[in-house]
Amino acid sequence: MDGEHFAPLLLDFEKGGIGLTLPLDSFQIGESSVPSRGEILKVNRIYACHKYFGRKPWHPISEKIRAYSSEGDTVFDPFLGSGVTAMESINLRRNFLGVDLNPMSKFITENTIDTNYNESLFDTEVGKLTERMESVANELYLSDTPCSQCDDFMVLCHVNNGPIFEPPFDCKFYCPSCGRNSRKAALERKANTLDDKKMNKDYKISKWVPETDFPEDFLKDRFSYKGITKVKQMYTPRNLYFLSELLHEIRHGQYVNQRFFLLAFSNTVLHASKLKSENVRPLNTNNYWVPDDRFEENPWMRFLERIKLVRKSKAELLIRNKKRKIGSATIQTTSSLKMELDDSSIDYIITDPPYGEAIQYYELSFIWNAWLDTEYQPDEEVIINSKQNKKVEDYIDFMKQSVEECARVLKVGGHYTLCFQNKDFKIWSDLLNLFKSNNFEFVEVDIIDLKGTPFNVNWKSFSPSADIYITFKLGTYKSTNELMNDVDNLVQQCLVEGQDDSIPDLYNRVIEKLIHEVYLCKNPVDVSKLSINSLLTTMEEHHAGN
Fold first, then answer.
1. Which stretch of 322-336, 472-486, 528-542 has the lowest confidence by average pLDDT?
2. CATH architecture classification, 1-113+326-478
3. FRET partner for 110 with CA separation of 20 to 30 A, picked from 227, 258, 338, 523?
4. Of the ranges 78-87, 143-152, 503-512, which is most confident?
5. With contact defined as beta carbons under 8 Å apart, do 177 and 150 qualify?
6. In 10 A of CB 505, how many CB atoms?
7. Which part of the chain has CATH 3.40.50.150?
8. Residue 466's pLDDT is what?
């Protein structure tokens, strides 16, 4: 990554942060066919128009919607996120309803699924925007060093000016005429007099910038101890000035494609901030961490890269739709705890709720919302957060309210697919009990491997690496007459059933059986003291003895 700081990632699906390109051959749902590698790559480009945390791969979602609903049905997602369920539902000619507390969810989803796009007009308006902003960008980032290939002056890519560095700072430049990806037209050198002058100039900001204060109760606060209390302090004076000028032009330049330009802009603001260094990318640390070895990036270059992502996204979306009829979508910024939906009005529910405390959505989207001048109160955010006085019990209570509401709006006989993962088996048990008490019948469980194997040290130390899809049917809950085995006997049974299983295969088998039996047995084992480490230790011991 050191040589190319502007190369866009294909997709940003990692649960613990942003920045993982998923393997294309590791998804299986029952006996359903997996899309071709080419199709996966093409549709991935649609979702690459904006980053979001915890975004799910689209093809398992699509297969579930296809399996549990029909054309013309109404599909509902009470935790919308970045809108994968919305896109896949309308693509399959279902009508979609989605809610989320976070305004960014509505913003990203509506712009991602928007087919009101004309490529020629888009390119024309990008040219108009470029013509108006290029002189501003040159004033701030143009160097006095000519390109060795064409003699045009080179443009600053980034400068390592964090507090750990001593002047003269290391800079990287590229030639806009030859193209930033041309290695022959790239240059690395120390900052000179002109570079220092532009870097240290007192920029008078006359346009709007967010004056938003960061809340004092941030759970993952890794910036206030460095004197940062406002969103605007996340930026160098030069980058803050440029972003204010760019946003003003987008909002007041009378662009038909303003919404898409705003999408590219919001996808730029984190990279233009102090959250980035040679070895750190914004949100990869799952919080707002301001590294001491940070660098100042040229936001105009980043914005133009984001514009390209939007253009590719819309081109692929139009190809995918092929002017055929698609379903409708209604998106609302509201809570899933109390919804204004009629009883028994939904045919199918599929959702990926917060996994407890793994991702703090309110905190991680705070800068995005500040720049778009939107905000929301996290009082009803379904999360575990000690700074908000939300404990595990509060999280389960929030989920209880949501499941009860979903049971109310779902038609009897309708299905509910829950995509969930958590390292705390007590949370798993409590969550399954919520579905039991609301008369959901167990249908199936699928484990979708995101990293080639869910059994790795990262899984134990930070974030689960497999998605578990559990499907229920609203009706009458029925338990079996069987008593659940203890975990040790369950592992032994799995070893007998899969004698040639590797440890990862065995893990998948154990987890699937564990969920199945916890849900269906009348007197399930108490899993409150079971941990990932203890389960893995038990499996390893049995596997070694086998």
1. 528-542
2. 3-Layer(aba) Sandwich (3.40)
3. 338
4. 78-87
5. yes
6. 14
7. 1-113+326-478
8. 73
Q: Please, what's the largest Cα pairwise distance for the chain?
A: 81
Q: Are 523 and 483 in contact (CB under 8 A)?
A: yes
- State the sign of the Cα–Cα–Cα–Cα dihedral 170, 172, 173, 178: positive
Contact 212, 231 (CB under 8 A): yes
Contacts of 40 (CB under 8 A, 6+ apart): 24, 59
**What is the Cα–Cα distance from 495 to 538, expressed in whole angstroms?**
12
Q: Where are any strands of DSSP class E within 40-140?
A: 74-77, 95-100
CA–CA dist 287, 269 (Å, integer)? 15
Write the CB contacts of 151 (distance below 8 Å, at least 6 apart in sequence).
none
Containing H/E element for 331?
Answer: strand 329-333
Cis amide prior to 354 (ω within 30 degrees): no
Q: Do 145 and 153 meet the contact criterion of CB atoms below 8 Å apart?
A: yes
- Collapsing DSSP states into helix, strand and coil, what is residue 406? helix
State the CB neighbour count (10 A cutoff) for residue 262. Answer: 18
How much is the pTM? Answer: 0.89
CA Rg, the chain, in Å? 25
Q: Where is 417: in which H helix or E strand? A: strand 410-420
> Bridge partners of 349?
76, 416
Which letter does DSSP use for residue 214 in this model?
A: P
Number of Cβ atoms within 10 Å of the Cβ of 468: 20
Q: Which residue intervals of 438-502 are DSSP H helices?
A: 457-461, 487-497
Q: How far apart are CA 526 and CA 517, in angstroms?
A: 12
Residues 335 and 313: their CA atoms lie apart, in Å, by 29
